[in-house]
């Protein structure tokens, strides 16, 4: 099994047409350096990017605090009781991500980092060839992600954003200097440094 074989069976909001585009630019970025994803949830996008990392002999760092987001609260549109820890009632998507990586054969390729952007961001020093941002969807959170992670994209590397019709996400990506829009499909936009 590879990531692409199972991606469409994994929980998440990545549109089927967006997966192949993630893979395409992850493969190009992997020629420059390791890959980064911020906001893995249960690993649907991780499958596509992880395949590209495996094929190139590099790794994918997958950052997520795995405690859900405001859109996933009980009264909100993205709520899913399947991802609550039965012992505590709190969100815990890490166990889902690990199952996804096992099924996809990507356990030696994808490195889950259980932390918020705000926790790991100030300590990050590794340049990356590709970064995919699909984490906080509030204005301040996505601006923090855009500013923080764009610094680590190597020249010629790629920075991708999901859910770009959301105005705060669109504003955040348009605020970045030194990046050019090179491709898009559905809500996915691809910038190149
Ligand atoms: Mg998304």
3D architecture notes:
The protein has 193 residues and is of the alpha/beta class. The protein is built from 7 helices and 7 strands; from the N terminus they run H-H-E-H-E-H-E-H-E-H-E-H-E-E. It has helices spanning 3-6, 18-29, 44-56, 94-104, 117-120, 139-150, 167-174, and strands at residues 35-38, 60-64, 110-114, 128-133, 153-161, 180-185, 188-192. A 7-stranded mixed β-sheet has the order 3-2-1-4-5-7-6, with helices on both faces. Helix 6 links the parallel strand 4 and strand 5 (153-161). The N and C termini lie far apart (33 Å). Magnesium ion binds at residues 13, 134, 162-163.
Our Rg estimate from Cα atoms comes to 15 Å
Query: Can you count the beta strands?
Result: 7
The helix content is 25-40%
SS field, number of helical segments = 7
The biggest beta sheet, please? Answer: 7 strands, mixed
Share of residues in strands: 15-25%
Please state the structural category.
alpha/beta
Roughly what is the average pLDDT, rounded to an integer?
Answer: 96
Order of helices and strands: HHEHEHEHEHEHEE
Tell me which oligomeric state these chains represent.
single chain
Major β-sheet strand ordering: 3-2-1-4-5-7-6
Shape: globular
Report the bound ligands by name, code or SMILES.
magnesium ion
Low-pLDDT ranges: none
Alpha-carbon distance between the two ends: 33 Å
